[in-house]
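Case study 2.
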Amino acid sequence: QVQLVESGGGLVQPGGSLRLSCAASGFSLDYYTIGWFRQAPGKAREGVSCIRSNDDSTYYADSVKGRFTISRDAAKNTVYLQMNSLKPEDTAVYYCAADTDVPRFRLWAAPEYDYWGQGTQVTVSS
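Prediction:
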């Protein structure tokens, strides 16, 4: 059974850090492009960061560039999103998603991804 499970969310003060994990079971993440998306109340789901399957190239939304880092640990079959210098506007439910073949120009398109986790809440507030 193919499954993605996110963890690591929580409540953090502005300027703080969190590391989200996306653990896979039933398949190897090595062969998948992984995207992190987020959705705040009343807003559309937006792409945050991606790591591609073919060359592990990484991509970031402008809003998180320089603050977030995506990485892949093949041994643990897990992808991480390290989030630093968090801002209140980063508050959202964060989802990881996976698919085998996502064109570069479609990395931020949620419908391109077949597999999704259940999401983890990140709240940035003082």
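The mean pLDDT is 95.
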